[in-house]
Amino acid sequence: MGAAGGHAENASEATKTLIMRGNRLDSRDLFTTEREIIIAHGEESYRLRLTSQNKLILTK
């Protein structure tokens, strides 16, 4: 849902709630709609990608 209560224009604009169990987060929850996410860490951005072989790659 967008800020005005309507639907978001695309999946990357959508807000998602993730559930952590202790310090564990299931990657299936991260990659339900996209195969790549951007992680903001301070002033830096990192890209976490799910490959076709179901591996994770983190790049700066």
Number of DSSP E strands: 3
Query: How are the strands of the biggest sheet laid out side by side?
Result: 1-2-3
Note the run of SSEs as H and E: HEEE
Span of the ends, CA to CA: 29 Å
Percent in strands: 25-35%
Helix content percent band: under 10%
Unreliable parts: 1-9
**CA gyration radius, whole angstroms:** 13 Å
Structural class computed from helices and strand pairing: mainly beta
Seen as an oligomer or otherwise, the chain set is single chain
Quick structural gist:
This protein has one helix at 27-30, and strands at 36-41, 44-50, 56-59. With 60 residues, the protein is mainly β. The chain starts with 26 loop residues before the first helix and ends with a strand.
List the helices and strands and how they pair.
Layout: H1 27-30, E1 36-41, E2 44-50, E3 56-59
Antiparallel strand pairs: 1-2, 2-3
3D architecture notes:
- By secondary structure, the chain is mainly β.
- The chain contains one helix and three strands.
- A three-stranded antiparallel sheet has the order 1-2-3, with no helix packed on it.
- A hairpin with a 2-residue loop joins strand 1 (about 35-40) and strand 2 (about 45-50).
- The model is unreliable at about 1-10 (pLDDT under 50).
Question: How would you describe this structure in keywords?
Answer:
about 60 residues, globular, three-stranded antiparallel beta sheet, 3 strands, mainly beta
